[in-house]
Design a protein that fits this description.
heterodimer, A: 328 residues, alpha/beta, five-stranded parallel sheet, elongated, B: 258 residues, nine-stranded mixed sheet, 6 helices, electron transport (chain A), flavoprotein (chain A)
Chain lengths: 328, 258
């Protein structure tokens, strides 16, 4: 290990309210290790940094810069941006990678605006060419691929969650504490944070290998149970279209789509979902797509590998019993 | 209270959207242009507040080609008091940095207590602009709000963060962004459409704002390649004749998905 690698990449890691690294950390560090030497930044409540730093090293961070500050609990965005600015000054990175999460976008946006750095958003991968770092994007619901790069200077990149499957090799922990000068930029105050823990034996939607989603075609919150039954039969996570969420069939955390969760499972089953582009944008990178819908013109059939025009309330129970039959 | 709402013309997602493979820019002729729905919801937040507080001024603002004027006018028909349209051919290929600097200059020029935007646009899905504007305007950001309470000197709301929900409050002036959890926008009625014709509609160039679009001394994010992905091969589509469920099970078994 050299003191100053020639190709440092600053990776901004987020912590959950519970003090764990966010699930985006592994993909971010892997993406960074593909284009350079990852230096991770963790910004945490007092006492939390050592454990977060250990997790970061295990996921491939060559060095971990840690900031512990109580202000992260009371002020929105600014303490993180101030920390990123201090870390960038210490690391002199060729790129700054941030998760394309709600908070990540804010941190990346403010940091780029503050430093005048160019920003590339919602990247699905990164590479290097002879001129430097290139961010890869998948746009218009996956219909196009676009590359972007900085004319000069470091590129700030927000990376789509779950887009990078690769994992970096674990490194020995090299922890440095980072001094941060507060910018004094005005921030919103955090009045309270409530951790949501959904008690469920089903897999988490983000990152699930199989997903069964329901739409408005289910008709009511009671009848949405059919989606859950099929999900349980397949060992799948439960998703939903925005229409089903708007209709109150299921909480918003299950929404698949452009403004919900993006999924890339082996199998995606869409029940009673018409397939508006906003929904397709969140699921059409699934390896196999099965759709059941009454409307033969539903756009979901354009992306389905196997589509059944029919009533979910007759087709799905038959599917569930066929699956049960097979297990016997 | 002066509220600026940022709106955007986007290709209608119900049609096909195309990128020009030469320039990498949106092919505006290929699909119908509409006001982005999330911007309409942002405008609804401002209009709902104005309904209850008579001394509220609501300005819609957009940076877009000249051809977008009619779309921006819809914001006036819905109830905004005036519109500001930044239209300049020199801004056609603006990256997010130049876009943020230009919008911030226009917002500063108009003056504001609150800026409201959508959380992510339908076309770019970037979601970083609200925070960039807040930084340039030197005010707090409160983003991705699923509920909004505007008071005389502050704005508060709830945001659904990873693994929880958070309550935040910012003193004004501030920049906020809202999510689809907020109500649908009102439809413009005939009276609104007629009234819109008489409302102030200001068109600004980059030079009006003191912005030099081709300033190459600052770093840019540029598009280096664009390609169309081959469309997904059409799969099998059957009509249920009493064996639809069984056929799906067979498909899953054949493809080792169960």
């Amino acid at each position: 290990m050299t003191d100053h690698p020639a190709d440092p990449i600053l990776v901004v890691l987020e912590a959950t309210p519970g003090g764990e690294l966010a699930t985006s950390a592994a993909g971010l560090l892997a993406a960074a290790s593909q284009i350079g030497t990852p230096a991770a930044l963790v910004v945490a409540a007092p006492g939390q940094a050592p454990s977060l730093a250990e997790q970061a090293a295990a996921l491939g961070a060559e060095r971990v810069l840690a900031v512990e500050s109580a202000s992260t609990q009371s002020e929105l965005t600014i303490p993180h941006v101030d920390a990123v600015a201090a870390a960038a000054a210490a690391v002199a990175p060729q790129a700054v990678l941030v998760s394309n999460s709600i908070d990540g976008r804010d941190i990346a946006g403010r940091f780029a605006a503050r430093t005048g750095a160019p920003i590339a958003v919602d990247a699905v991968g990164l590479s290097r060419d002879e001129e430097g770092i290139v961010a890869h994007h998948s746009v218009y619901g996956g219909a196009y691929t676009v590359d972007s790069a900085a004319t000069f200077g470091p590129l700030v990149v927000t990376v789509r969650q779950g887009a990078v499957d690769a994992r970096a090799e674990a490194r020995a922990l090299a922890l440095e504490s980072l001094e941060v000068a507060a910018s004094g930029a005005p921030s919103a105050a955090i009045e309270s944070v409530e951790a949501v823990t959904e008690a469920s034996s089903r897999p988490e939607l983000r990152g699930a290998k199989r997903v069964v989603s329901g739409g408005r075609g289910l008709g009511s919150a009671e009848q949405f149970a059919l989606v859950e039954e099929l999900a349980d039969a397949l060992g799948a996570a439960v998703g939903a279209s925005r229409a089903a969420v708007d209709a109150g069939y299921i909480p918003a955390s299950h929404q698949v789509g452009q403004t919900g969760v993006s999924v890339s499972p082996q199998l995606y089953v869409a029940l009673g979902i018409s397939g508006a582009i906003q929904h397709r944008a969140g699921m059409q990178t699934a390896k196999n797509i099965v759709a059941v819908n009454k409307d033969p013109e539903a756009p979901i059939f354009d992306v389905a590998d196997f589509g059944v025009v029919g009533d979910v309330f007759t087709v799905v129970p038959q599917l569930i019993s066929a699956l049960a039959e097979r297990k016997r | 209270m002066k509220i600026i709402v940022l709106v955007k013309e986007v290709p209608d997602t119900w049609g096909e959207r195309r990128l020009d493979l030469e320039t990498g820019l949106a092919d505006r002729a290929a699909s119908e242009a509409v006001l982005d729905e999330i911007g309409e919801r942002a405008l609804e937040v401002a209009l709902a507040y104005a309904d209850a507080h008579a001394d509220t001024e609501v300005v819609v603002m957009s940076m877009a080609p000249e051809s977008a004027a009619a779309t921006i006018r819809k914001g006036l028909a819905m109830g905004a008091g005036s519109a500001v349209h930044i239209a300049d051919p020199g801004l056609a290929a603006a990256d997010l940095g130049l876009t943020a600097r230009t919008l911030a200059a226009a917002i500063r020029r108009i003056g504001f207590d609150l800026v409201i935007t959508g959380n992510v646009s339908t076309d770019g899905s970037g979601g970083v602009l609200p925070a960039m504007l807040a930084e340039l305007l030197e005010v707090p950001n409160a983003t991705a709000l699923s509920s909004v309470e505007i008071a005389d000197d502050s704005v508060a709301g709830t945001r659904n963060i990873e693994g929880g929900t958070m309550r935040v409050r910012a003193s004004l002036p501030a920049v906020i962004s809202i999510t689809e959890a907020l109500p649908d926008a009102r439809f413009p009625n005939f009276k609104g459409i007629m009234a819109a014709k008489k409302k102030p509609f200001e068109t600004l160039s980059a030079a009006d704002l003191g912005i030099e679009p081709e300033d190459l001394s600052v770093p840019w994010s540029i598009m280096t390649a664009v390609a169309e992905k081959p469309p997904r091969a059409a799969g099998v589509k059957i009509t249920d004749e009493g064996d639809g469920g069984t056929r799906i099970a067979e498909f899953l078994i054949e493809n080792r998905l169960v």
